[in-house]
């Protein structure tokens, strides 16, 4: 069953066409990789999905309902959550307070004053940072801060998680550990879209890969199909997509 459907998505910034008539669908339960070179429009697609940017043209449906240009608050409450490419924790707050803040965009949780301490500990435990709840993000290593960013997204109780370059800046062990967490999220029923500028880290993790190039759909298929796709190979040879 289709959970996310993007039809003809176009986003212009003045004369710059960042996303150009882009189509993509995600089935419930899938982990889909969205790859493309830097500047190809991946983060812009996520910003349009989250209602951060108003779309220039096209439609977005989530769980059968149109969400195009809905407010971020409405979109989060429908079950979409995004881990941004850049971490933005509040250093003056503890890890616990940072996570709690993110339970507030969810109307149901906000109604009761945000998540309880037990609920926050559970969100943290899903990314193994439950022992750091009283620490400040500034004292955590990069991979720990990235886990905090994921815990914040989990705290909105998403059906679908959008992860923008989640493995960037991580060593191989940290990548392997995070990929295992993403498998656990899948088992918990969370559908995921993972953006990366190369496909190496996504092999073995994702069910399907969609390739975006110059804001436009280039190819879609299993990781094996994409690795053997002539158009994608040409883009690789042109240095537009790095492996
Ligand atoms: P990617 O995430 O694939 O690296 P982006 O979606 O960040 O690419 O960017 C796609 C294009 O849109 C780039 O040319 C970028 O400079 C441009 N862009 C993204 N956000 C903005 C913005 N807020 N204002 C103007 N241009 C933007
Ligand atoms: Mg980006």
UniProtKB/TrEMBL annotation:
The keyword Transmembrane helix does not apply. One of its GO terms (cellular component) is plasma membrane. GO terms for molecular function: ATP binding; ATP hydrolysis activity. Pfam families: ABC_tran. Residues 4-239 form the ABC transporter domain. Keywords: ATP-binding, Nucleotide-binding, Transport. The keyword Transport applies. It comes from the Archaea. Gene3D superfamilies: P-loop containing nucleotide triphosphate hydrolases. This is ABC transporter ATP-binding protein. It comes from Natronorubrum daqingense.
